[in-house]
């Protein structure tokens, strides 16, 4: 985005404060704004997603969240659903553990290992083409694409076994 606007900033360091005139500083400033909005406005989760998570939780299904965002824990808390996910493998965890992001399967594999589920018996629910590709590349038992705009065909082409438009379609 910066290059397309002829903006040149030094890379900086991930520890740069939000005020720093660096790429990392700009990213940290964006995170500060996102977290302020989350705190002020909260998040309204998709009702079908909440219904599925609650149904799975009642059945004792082990669940984790995988996200490239370092804000995933704050988003889950703002949505009121953090307690359902004992494991969150987000951008911060991936960076700390040296895990490549999607479409590499490593973050999904790490999440399955941390909740104690064999990969072949684990399910990936994903709305991004790169995430579906990661689930397929990891050999997960079922990869469900959630079409929130990526397109059903694109999700199938990336390796989704099933594509739904809302997670309430797979409620038990």
List keywords for this structure.
globular, 2 domains, three-stranded parallel sheet, 172 residues, 7 helices, alpha/beta, Rossmann fold, two-stranded parallel sheet, HAD-SF_hydro_IA
Q: How would you describe what is shown here?
A:
There is one protein chain. This protein is of the alpha/beta class and 172 residues long. It has two domains: 3-41, no CATH class; 47-170, HAD superfamily/HAD-like (Rossmann fold, 3-Layer(aba) Sandwich). Helices cover 42% and strands 10% of the residues. It is built from seven helices and five strands. A three-stranded parallel sheet has the order 3-4-5, covered by helices on one side. A two-stranded parallel sheet has the order 1-2. The radius of gyration is 17 Å and the shape is globular. The N and C termini lie far apart (43 Å).
Please describe the biggest sheet, giving its number of strands, its sense, and whether it closes into a barrel.
Answer: 3 strands, parallel
- What's the architecture of the largest domain, going by CATH? 3-Layer(aba) Sandwich
Supply the number of helical segments: 7
Range of helix content: 40-55%
Radius of gyration: 17 Å
Decide which structural class fits the backbone: alpha/beta
For the biggest β-sheet, the strand order reads 3-4-5
N-to-C SSE string, H for helix and E for strand: HHEHEHHEHEHE
Number of domains: 2
Uncertain parts: none
Measured by DSSP, the beta-strand proportion falls in 5-15%
Distance between the termini: 43 Å
Quote the CATH topology of the largest domain.
Answer: Rossmann fold
CATH superfamily of the largest domain: HAD superfamily/HAD-like
Region (Disordered): 1-20
Protein name: Haloacid dehalogenase superfamily, subfamily IA, variant 3 with third motif having DD or ED
Pfam families: Hydrolase
InterPro entries: HAD-like_sf, HAD-like_SPP, HAD-SF_hydro_IA, HAD_sf
């Amino acid at each position: 985005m910066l290059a397309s606007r002829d903006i040149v900033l030094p890379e900086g360091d991930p520890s740069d404060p939000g005020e720093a005139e660096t790429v990392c500083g700009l990213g940290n400033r964006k995170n500060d704004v996102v977290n302020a909005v989350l705190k002020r406005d909260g998040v309204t989760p998709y009702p079908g997603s909440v219904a599925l998570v609650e149904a799975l939780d009642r059945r004792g299904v082990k669940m984790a969240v995988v996200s490239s965002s370092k804000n995933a824990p704050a988003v889950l808390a703002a949505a009121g659903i953090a307690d359902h996910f004992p494991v969150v493998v987000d951008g911060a965890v991936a960076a700390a553990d040296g895990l490549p992001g999607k479409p590499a399967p490593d973050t999904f594999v790490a999440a399955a290992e941390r909740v104690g589920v064999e990969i072949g018996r684990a399910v990936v629910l994903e709305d991004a083409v790169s995430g579906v590709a990661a689930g397929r590349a990891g050999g997960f038992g079922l990869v469900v694409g959630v079409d929130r705009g990526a397109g059903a065909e694109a999700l199938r082409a990336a390796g989704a076994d099933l594509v739904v438009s809302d997670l309430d379609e797979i409620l038990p």
